[in-house]
Automatic annotation (TrEMBL):
Keyword hit for Cell wall biogenesis/degradation: yes
GO molecular function: UDP-N-acetylmuramoylalanyl-D-glutamate-2,6-diaminopimelate ligase activity
Pathway(s) per entry: Cell wall biogenesis; peptidoglycan biosynthesis
Name this protein carries in UniProt: UDP-N-acetylmuramyl-tripeptide synthetase
PROSITE patterns xref list: FOLYLPOLYGLU_SYNT_1
Named cofactor requirement(s): Mg(2+)
Subcellular location as annotated: Cytoplasm
Alphabetized UniProt keyword annotations: ATP-binding, Cell cycle, Cell division, Cell shape, Cell wall biogenesis/degradation, Cytoplasm, Ligase, Magnesium, Nucleotide-binding, Peptidoglycan synthesis
Function: Catalyzes the addition of an amino acid to the nucleotide precursor UDP-N-acetylmuramoyl-L-alanyl-D-glutamate (UMAG) in the biosynthesis of bacterial cell-wall peptidoglycan.
One Pfam family in the UniProt entry: Mur_ligase_C
Main location: cytoplasm
Domain Mur ligase C-terminal: 323-445
Length: 478
């Protein structure tokens, strides 16, 4: 693409030579000849420190937000490199969002499951869907691993450009909003699932976290629709803020003016009210929280025009999401659950589900992520000790925190079992659990381990499967 034409996107007045840009990148290691390099200040690295490396690799123009002098190629200073990246990436790929129907889902818990449910319903109704989320990126039927819940602006625009699907379903994280990854994108539908104590190391406090989430709704089209879970204080607050907006909004809650209400929740069967009709909501997956996720998906699909009975039928056949309340049955009658839960509310959802399913004893295995929001840890421990019969603390991603330091903190939090090796912590819980007991393993979900542990497994799911396999081998030899 012509460099001068591309830079008109960020309204620069600098006159540049007539040159074709082959690519845009923020990674100096991926720069090739005739690339445009944008220097980003990241969490661990500052791209401005790698400008010379980018030039040596062939970058012919640099964009950044710091004062830089005497470079051998043009340097354009901008107020915000991330915003410039979003605008330039959109222009480079031909503003691909303009031709898409985009569904954005934000909130602390439930984004992934709600996204998968919507995709399942829409595809059963004959629509095609791309999905950008924390588990996988799915485009034109092909699946790729995801690096972030919300892709960086460059990859997001590239994904949009290659997608031939009718709908884009996007999990929108608070980091993605704050860092301008969705800048320039407008949404046809915006969903708010809930808000819980999380990421306050980044946002400062709950109010700041909430206001960041709320910014997604500033990006709804005038003819768009917001769908809000009003059955929590933050959802009610957001609904109040949206009263004067041009777009429409509907709510899930327990009040008379809510579009959808949940009348009752029982294992495998719930009842909702929608437009004056009481409807049975049957799910193949467990958990009160999944009833709320299903209700959000129901409202979204109904606004798109999928018939109610078809929505209900699709929800009955939804089989779940990798790492989201995945259930395994052990030969001795123990139920094992692997879930991504990493907040107190998410813990409560998992542990309460086990209780309502008639669990004998509940064993809860989890850890804390190093160098992350430590202010939520007390709530996490409190809810675990309240609802679980035994809490087993173990290591999660350390993120640079020395293992000994994290282990010491775990021992201070828990007077019971602390087992540093995550695979052995899971093994310990499964060995203690008897018939009708439940083992809930939270925090990692679908994510791979970043450390090597004793058992030959790379994730919580693989650890559980390895232990269950050795069970079967042992039983067959008896």
């Amino acid at each position: 693409m012509n460099l001068q034409k591309l830079l008109q996107t960020i309204r620069t007045q600098i006159s540049l030579p007539d040159r074709i840009i082959h690519n845009i990148t923020t990674n100096s290691q991926s720069v090739e000849k005739n690339d445009l390099f944008i220097a980003i200040k990241g969490y661990s690295f500052n791209g401005h420190d790698f400008i010379n490396q980018a030039i040596e690799a062939g970058a012919v123009c640099i964009i950044g937000e710091e004062d830089i002098q005497e470079l051998p190629v043009p340097y354009i200073k901008v107020p915000n490199s991330r915003i410039a990246l979003s605008e330039l990436a959109s222009a480079f790929y031909g503003n691909p969002a303009k031709d898409k129907k985009i569904i954005g889902i934000t909130g602390t818990n439930g984004k992934t499951t709600t996204a998968y449910m919507i995709k399942h319903i829409l595809e059963n109704a004959g629509h095609t869907c791309s999905m950008f989320g924390s588990v996988n990126t799915i485009i034109n039927g092909d699946t790729y691993p995801s690096l972030n819940t919300t892709p960086d602006a460059l990859n997001l625009q590239k994904h949009l450009a290659i997608s031939n699907d009718e709908f884009i379903i996007m999990e929108v994280s608070s980091h993605g909003i704050a860092q301008g990854r969705i800048h320039g994108i407008t949404f046809d539908f915006g969903l708010f699932t809930n808000l819980d104590h999380d990421h306050l190391d980044y946002h400062g406090d709950m109010e700041g976290y909430f206001l960041t989430k709320a910014k997604m709704f500033e990006k709804l089209k005038d003819n768009g629709c917001a769908i809000i879970n009003n059955d929590n204080a933050w959802g009610e607050k957001l609904s109040g803020m949206l009263q004067s907006c041009a777009f429409s909004f509907i709510t899930l809650g327990n009040k008379e003016n809510d579009e959808l209400t949940i009348n009752k929740i029982t294992p495998g069967f719930s009842e909702i009210s929608y437009k004056g009709r009481n409807l049975p909501l049957q799910l193949a997956i467990l958990g009160q929280h999944n009833t709320y996720n299903a209700a959000m998906a129901f409202l979204t699909a109904s606004q798109i025009g999928v018939p109610v009975q078809q929505i209900m039928k699709s929800l009955r056949t939804f089989s779940g999401v990798p790492g989201r309340f995945e259930v395994f049955r052990r030969s001795n009658g123990t139920t094992v659950v692997v879930d991504y839960a990493h907040t107190a509310e998410a813990f409560s959802n998992c542990l309460t589900t086990a209780k309502t399913q008639g669990a004998g004893k509940v064993f809860h295995v989890f850890g804390f992520r190093g160098d992350r929001d430590a202010s939520k840890r007390n709530k996490m421990i409190t809810i675990s000790k309240k609802l679980a019969d035994e809490t087993i603390l173990t290591l999660d991603d350390l993120n640079g925190v020395p293992p000994a330091a994290m282990l010491q903190e775990l021992k201070e939090w828990n007077e019971g079992q602390v087992i540093s090796d995550r695979t052995l912590a899971i093994q310990y819980a499964l060995e203690k659990a008897k018939e009708n007991d439940w083992v809930i393993i939270t925090g990692k979900g679908h994510e791979p381990y970043h450390s090597k542990f004793t058992l030959p497994a790379n994730s919580d799911k693989e650890t559980v499967e390895y232990i269950l396999q050795t069970d079967n081998i042992y039983n067959k030899t008896l």
